[in-house]
């Protein structure tokens, strides 16, 4: 992605994870400044050449974001979606990317997977840890 590109991620309301966990994880993982995070949408501003976007929310529909660009002087609506993968803690992300540095707006696709920390994974790892600890303890106490 070129200079000035935005990457948006929207987690659906019924994703089953605390939004704060997802926002914090994605912000750290993608090196996002905190001021670009808004409820149900996370935008990555990779260069300093454009204003923070103004976003409109649409419940249970792909979010339409209007990026009012300073560099280039034009605005372009983008759609962002997040799809849940078979793994309960894994989300596959598909988003439109807009680079205002080009003469004409170019729409592209970014696809990736992000493991979101949630209570289910914590419970699973904790359960496995204590099960192994118990097995080792029983083995040595015989």
From TrEMBL:
Keyword annotations for this protein? Membrane, Transmembrane, Transmembrane helix
Q: Which domain of life is it from?
A: Bacteria
Residue ranges annotated as transmembrane are 122-141
Protein name, UniProt field: Uncharacterized protein
